[in-house]
């Protein structure tokens, strides 16, 4: 990975960073680390066709590398090729990216309204990465959707404790508290979610608080 180019990308100069990385790859075309860096940048700017091509180049050099497989699954998911994405993610169960793979499978199943499967994979991801905001938040949201408020509460609290200025965490934690008969604190958190992300939560919070 090239840190200078990564810093350039993070500063918002996406196109410059991608061009600079492409030039480096012209000099070192079989550098899997740089290919992966380019692929993740392309995914972030949603240039999925180019990202897929770069990942195919990387896979031809290092076909078993977990990071390549995971990013291929991310691209497949974003292209709505979820069956293919799941097939790839299932290959990562015994790798260092197992938690990431389980998280993404939980996301896919949650989007498909397969809540039991989503719960199982999200729970596994939390067990593998107990201090990750994303995994705790996702599991809290999946359980909340099933109105399993008692179970949702602990994961929602963990997510909120990890990042108290996250609107999604504030919303799900507030909703869980409200449904756990802790109305004052629950309403405070829902109000915080509305202030942090009014476009997303204005109407939802209004609906909950006027019931």
TrEMBL record:
It comes from the Bacteria. Signal peptide: none annotated. Transmembrane segments: none annotated. It holds the Pfam family TPR_19. InterPro entries: TPR-like_helical_dom_sf, TPR_rpt. SUPFAM superfamilies: HCP-like. This is Tetratricopeptide repeat protein. It comes from Lapidilactobacillus mulanensis.
């Amino acid at each position: 990975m090239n840190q200078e180019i990564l810093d350039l990308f993070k500063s918002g100069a996406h196109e410059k960073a991608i061009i600079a990385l492409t030039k480096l790859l012209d000099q070192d075309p079989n550098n899997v680390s740089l290919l992966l860096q380019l692929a993740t940048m392309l995914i972030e700017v949603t240039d999925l066709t180019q990202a897929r091509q770069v990942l195919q180049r990387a896979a031809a050099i290092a076909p078993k590398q977990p990071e390549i497989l995971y990013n291929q699954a991310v691209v497949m998911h974003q292209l709505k090729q979820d069956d293919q994405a799941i097939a790839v993610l299932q290959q990562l169960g015994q790798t260092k990216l197992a938690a990431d793979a389980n998280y993404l499978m939980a996301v896919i199943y949650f989007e498909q309204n397969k809540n039991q499967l989503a719960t199982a994979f999200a729970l596994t991801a939390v067990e593998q990465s107990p201090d990750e905001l994303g995994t705790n938040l996702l599991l809290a949201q999946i359980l909340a959707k099933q109105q399993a408020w008692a179970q949702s509460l602990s994961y929602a609290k963990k997510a909120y404790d990890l990042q108290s200025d996250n609107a999604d965490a504030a919303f799900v934690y507030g909703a869980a508290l409200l449904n756990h008969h802790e109305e004052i604190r629950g309403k405070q958190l829902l109000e915080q979610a509305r202030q942090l992300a009014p476009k997303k939560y204005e109407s939802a919070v209004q609906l909950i608080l006027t019931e």
